From TrEMBL:
Keywords: Ribonucleoprotein, Ribosomal protein. PANTHER family: 30S RIBOSOMAL PROTEIN S18, LARGE RIBOSOMAL SUBUNIT PROTEIN ML66. This is 28S ribosomal protein S18a, mitochondrial. It comes from Stegodyphus mimosarum. GO terms for molecular function: small ribosomal subunit rRNA binding; structural constituent of ribosome.
Length: 137
């Protein structure tokens, strides 16, 4: 409910910074940040001036991030994850809410085929007791 309210507020803002955002159906675009450009602040003092500058620093996650050759498509198709099983709990947890329901397709950005696989795998994992179910089900 709060997500829809936030989206309607952003869509109704008549500002030169938001016209492109109003055309998208996905609110996740608002939370995307650029983790690639880490900078360290250096302060240099001389008798007449103080110089503060940002120097680029390599990320400590540099060798651990997956290099995605295909930039188009849904998140699971991009990394080539075709066989999603109900035992892949770490992957499935990224697509469920805290109450155990699957996050809608327009928010996750999954294609129809992968969304169906995720819904089916979450249901199997909940029946197996690997993921908590919704209260009352």
């Amino acid at each position: 409910m709060a997500l829809k309210t936030a989206w309607t507020l952003i869509r109704n803002v008549k500002c030169r910074h938001f016209p492109v955002l109003a055309t998208y159906n996905c609110v996740r675009l608002l939370s995307i940040s650029s983790p690639h450009f880490l900078k360290e602040i250096h302060r240099t003092e001389t008798p007449n001036q103080i110089v503060i500058e940002g120097v680029k620093v390599k990320s400590d996650r540099e060798g651990k991030v997956i290099n995605v050759p295909n930039q188009r498509g849904c998140p699971l198709c991009r990394v080539g994850l075709k066989n999603l099983k109900h035992t892949d709990i770490l992957i499935l947890n990224q697509f469920i809410n805290s109450d155990g329901s699957v996050i809608p397709q327009y928010i996750t950005g999954l294609c129809k085929k992968q969304h169906f696989k995720v819904v089916r795998a979450v249901a199997l994992a909940q029946r197996a007791g690997l993921i908590p179910k919704k209260p009352g089900t």
